[in-house]
Structures are given as C-alpha cells and as structure tokens.
Amino acid sequence: MASKMYRKIMVRPERFRSTDFATATGIVSVPVPESVGANEAVIRVTHAGVQASDIIQMAGGYGTLASDRPTPLERATGANQPGDLGCEAVGVVEKLGSGMDEAEWPIGQPVCFWGYGVAFREVTTIPASSLFKVPTAIPDWTAFPVSALTATGGLEIVGKIRSLSNPSVLVTGAAGGTGHMAVQFAKKVHGAKVAGTCGSSAKEAMLESIGCDVVVNYRTSPDVETELSKAFPSGFDIVYDGVGGRIGDVGRRLLSEKGIFVGIGTVSEDYSGTRGADDDNKRETSKKAALKPGQHEEFFFMPAGPRLIGRAGWDGIVNRTKEAIADGTVRVVLDDESGSYRGIEGVYRAQERIRSGQNVGKVYASFPQASGE
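and the corresponding structure tokens:
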C-alpha cells in the first residue's frame, strides 16, 4: 500500500446527536492498519455513496452509535471505530487476512460493500461476507449495496411484488438514489406500471428517460392526488415511499384495496439540522393518513433482509439485483454534480447536495488518491 496514512471522517463527540453533517463531523489522518483480522480484507476506497441515511447513523439511529458514544477525534486510529461514517462504497482489494483465498479475492479485485462507518475514508477493513465483486471500481456500483438493495428488498420482501400480476407501483422521491432504482426494478424487472413523484423539471426528464410511466412534479402540479388517481383509478398495489409528509399521505390514500405501503425513510421531513422540512411537502394534518381494512404499511430496513427471509432468500435478491445492474436491465443514474466531489472534502459537498434536494440520481464522492487518478 503506497501511503502509511489515510484520512477518514468521524463524528465529533461534543456534537453527537446533531443532524448537521458539516458541524458534527471532522476529518482525521490515521495510520493504515498493519494487521488484518481473519476473513477480512483491507480495501482502498475509490468512491463513496452518499445518502440521507448517513445522517440517521451519525445521530445514533443505528449501527455502533446506537449504543456507543463516538470515539474522540484525538483517539482516532486506523481501525473501524464508533463515530466512523459512510454506509456504502466501491474500492479495490489491497490486503488479505487469514482465511481469505487470494485466488478468489486477488489483490486489485474491484469490490463494493456496505456497513456502518466503512465508506467515508480512504482505507477500510471489511469482512469477506460484506464484499461484492464487481467488474470495475466505478461510481455506478456505489448504488448497489444500500440504495439498490433497499429498493429490491422493499419491493420483494414487504411489497411481495413477485407474487403480483401486472402490479401498479408509486415511488415517491423517485429521482433519488434508491427511488430511481425502485422505479426501474418495478418496471423493467417485474413488469409493473409505475408512477413517480419528484420536485424539479430535471428530475422529471430523468424519470421519463428510465421508463417511468407517469411522472408528477409535486412542486408544480395543482393537485398531485387527482393527477395520480386519474392515471391509476384502481390505486396502487405498492407505494414505495422515501419522502414522507404530504406526498407520503397521498400514497396512503391511493393504495388499492389490498395495497402495501413500503416505508424506507422520510427525507423531506428534515435530516439537515439547519433548515426546516420541505415547505412543498408539509403534512396537511398532524397525523398520517389512515389505512383502510385490508391495506398494510411496513417499514423496510435493508440490513434486516437476511433475518426477514433467511440467508438463501436474501442471497437470491442480492444476485438478481446485481445481475440486473450488470447486464444493463437497470441503469444507475449518477448525479452530474457528483463528478466534482473529490477527496474526503468532497463528502461534505455531497452531503450538501443531498440536503438541497436537487440531486438527480445517485450522489457520490471520489477519492482520487485511492483510485490512482
């Protein structure tokens, strides 16, 4: 490994529980680990995926910070520590621990992976069980480990889309990292008729380009619910909701007789810590819209996938998801602005992009030192 030091982003203990990424975190320089644990690999990170759920992790919503306080920055080491951030990334294998077969995991093998605190760093140590081989270490694969598997897991496990004939699906936040994955997996893999909501003309154009049947801009439409109801008079068999608020309630009211509401987050209801919720998506009442008898609502959390359907079932979802991306059935749309987010500092600009709600597709940051650019 060329450098003996690398940089990573950690939560500042004095700012723990804050949801303002810019002020709650700091960059530290630490030594590259000299030893590697059994069945682990050291990965040089080339691209890190960035998403709203990073903020939940940072504030202690899940991962190690759900039970541990962040490690003080002055005690940072090259190991994975409480307070390390980033959930999905792409990189190349640099070093193997005992039990890792170099024929299966050759040095230089491109991989993508997920975990808690594994992505916003130039070097990371990952268990073999969390690694996915990919053809090349390009940013497209940042969308696979969390964004895409949240979409396919939510649609298949909670939405039970594989059991439906000619399903109808509504995806809110459809032009985001997981949203545009859900649109395509529903449409191109499962043959659904799909509607997507979004908040800009650029997002409308992207959704049309990936085959979304009906696109509604909730900022400009005079009546989102009426527009969707006209296009889908029998309602939606599945609503895949990542925004919450008013549009989430529209989805609940438009469920079909036995429709399933799959919640994966409420990004418009403020993850930033520096501004209020999206004014164009404020909930109209203090309570969520009620479901009718026969309808169902459930939150899907991707790491729970193997527990919900067993390892063999989850592996099937993983393999189908990866194959659909690899063979081009599903196209990863990368946010254009993300190409300029370079180095560890680029993660901060990427987080600002997510908070602004202006991203079109997957947001990521690249680490040129790691990728050899």
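(Above: one complete record from the training split.) Residues 305-326 form the longest helix (22 residues).
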